[in-house]
Amino acid sequence: MSSPARLRAHLVAAGLAGAVATSREESLRSYRLFAARDPRVLIGIDPEGAWEFPDLLALMARRCGVSADPRHTSGPDVIDPERTLAALDAFAGRIRAAARRGAPVLLGTGHPRRLLGFYAALADALSTAGCEILTPAQGRCVDILTRFGLRPHRLDYVRGVALMREPASGRPGCEPGAHSHSPLPVRVALEAAAQAGGPLPELVVGDHGWVCGAGQLGFEAIGLADTDDPAPFVGEAEGRVAVVVPVDDAVRSGHYRPLTRYVLNRACLSQ
């Protein structure tokens, strides 16, 4: 599924774009929390602009295709598949550039159940192309704020992709990792890489706190984001995040495989 037309049809059919499962209520709530500078929604971005609610709604309408009408307050939200395709092309361009120069790359996700396969395939292709896939701070403990308070998590890597595990989740049959939007893991990983004196990433690929935290620190960062995640799009608008692909980030993991094939095809990498 490497042609834009076929991928566009898949995006809509799978709920990755078009009408998505993320509700309008969730999105508007996130925009209001971002405007109030709630760190749970900032996820590592320290915005330079004022970014009040109307500004955020207008930005998300431009970047994602959501309705710009504040009176539209309920129902499923919408992602324009044309915007997704355009962003995937830009995303693939960054992957291609990193592969051509053999750049060290760091990949991480806060949605391992859904997105691990997408990033792992990119890691495999980049490694084959000669890039070093970095795994700094493996096993490091990071205290992450959850709805139950601060909980210790362990930074782990699966097929070259960073994720967080709760201490009891190392048993066979457990979830592949914890859901987290925190920017702390990428900060810990980047600090460990610097302290070790090894290579620092020339490209960070991920979502949520991974892409926002890295971009805020000045690293080239690209990733995926849903309509209720304004922070990466604000980072992109302010020049700290290089590329953000608007896409529903919580559909079945297998639905992201055509996106992987499309990106690798556009990046001229073997699959």
UniProtKB/TrEMBL annotation:
Domain of life: Bacteria
InterPro entries hit by this protein: Phosphatase_SCO2771
A Pfam family recorded for this sequence: Phosphatase
Protein name listed in UniProt: Phosphatase
Organism the protein comes from: Streptomyces rubradiris (Streptomyces achromogenes subsp. rubradiris)
